[in-house]
C-alpha cells in the first residue's frame, strides 16, 4: 500500500478518533448549564453523562466482531451517520428525556467508531511502524479532549449549550465526507456468523451491573448487580460452546498479554474517566468559574496527553510496550492522589500541576497498552481485539462515572447541584479521588503481569 494512501487513512481515522473525546469533554463542561436550562436534578443530570458511556460499553464488543464480518470501513461509515444524527437530536432537545435518548444513540454509534478506527490502523500499519501510527491517533484523541473543554465552554457561554451539539454534528459530516474518499474496506471473518445470543446476554449483563451500580445504596441496586454477574457467567458458558462467539474465550485464555493489558485498560479508565466530570463540578459550582474558565483549566491534562502520546507510541516500538504502560499507570496514580487533598481554597496552580501529572501518565499508558494488545493477535482477530480493548475502556469509563455519580447522589440526594451543597459536593469528590487512586495503584501490578507472561510465551514460541 502506498504511503500517500496510508496517510489519507491515518488522517481519516484520526478525525474519527478526535470527534468522540471532543464531544465527551465539551458536554461535560456544559452539564451545569444544561441542568439550569432544562432544568434537571442531580439524578437526571448524572444520567445525561452516564447514559452515553453505558450504551457505548454495551455495544463496543459486539461491534468489534461485526466489523470483522461486515467490513471495518462500512461499519465506521454507518456509525458516523448515526452519530451525526444523534448529535442533532441532542441539540434540539427540549426535555431531559429527549436529551438522554439522544445521548443513548450517541453512545451506540460511538461504539462503532471506537472499534473500527483502531482495527483499520492496525490493518494498514505493520509491526514496527504501528506504535507511531497509534501514537498519532491517540494524540488526536487528546487534541479532542484538550480543545473540548475550552471550546465547549466558549460555545456554552456565548451561544448556549445546544451549539456544542450543532458543532459536533458539523464535524461528523466532515469525517463522513473524508471517509468516503477511502475506497478499500477491511474484512477478516466474512464467512462467520454474528453471535446475536451472546451479544444480547453481554449487553444485559453490562446493563444490569452498571444500572445496579448507580443504585448501589439500595437493596434493589445490589440485586441488579448480582443478576448482572449471573448473566456474565452465563455469557462465558455460552461463548465457550458457540462455534463463532462474539468473544473468543479461548483467545483470552491463550493470550495473556491480551487478557492482562485489557484488564489494565479497564482499571485505568475506571480510575481516570470521571476526573474531568468531577473537576468541572468543582470549578464551576464550588469555585464559581464560568464554563470557559473551567474549560481552560481542564485543558492542561489532554494537552500534555496530545503532546506526549506520539512519543509514547515511538518508545513502545523500541521498549517493551507493557513496561512503558505500567510506568504510565504509576505516574497516573500519583496525579490522582494529589486531588485527594482538594480544599475550597486550593489554588489553580496546584490543580493544573496535578492534571499535568495525570496527562503525562495517561499518555505513556494508552498508546503502549494499545500497541501491546493489537500486536499480540493475528490479523483475523484485529476487530475482536479492538472490541475487547474498546469494551475494557468503555466499561471502565462507565464504572468510573457510575462510581462518581453514586457517591455524589448518596451525598446530596436528588437536589439540584448548586453552591448551597458545596461542602457536601467537595467531600464526595475527595472520597471519589481516594477510591480511584487506590484502584489505579492496583492497576500497576495488573499491567506489569502481562510483561512476565509475555516473556514466558516468547520462550515457548522459540
What keywords describe this structure?
462 residues; mainly alpha; Growth Hormone, Chain: A; 2 domains
Walk me through this protein's architecture.
With 462 residues, this protein is an all-alpha fold. The chain folds into two domains: 3-194 and 246-461, Up-down Bundle (Growth Hormone, Chain: A), CATH 1.20.1250.20; 195-245. Helix content is 83%, strand content 0%. It is built from 17 helices and no strands. α1 packs antiparallel against α6. It is globular and about 55 Å long. It starts with a helix and ends with a helix.
CA gyration radius, whole angstroms:
21 Å
Strand content of the residues, in percent? under 5%
Query: Which fold name fills CATH's third level, the topology of the largest domain?
Result: Growth Hormone, Chain: A
Unreliable sequence segments? 454-462
Task: Tell me the major beta sheet.
Answer: none
Helix segment tally: 17
**CATH hierarchy: architecture of the largest domain:** Up-down Bundle
The residue fraction in helices comes out at over 70%
- Secondary-structure-derived class: mainly alpha
Number of domains: 2
Number of strands: 0
The CA-CA distance between the termini, in Å, is 31 Å
* CATH level-1 class of the largest domain: Mainly Alpha
Say which CATH homologous superfamily of the largest domain is assigned.
Answer: MFS general substrate transporter like domains
Shape: globular
How would you spell out the order of helices and strands?
A: HHHHHHHHHHHHHHHHH
User: What do the pLDDT scores average to?
Assistant: 83
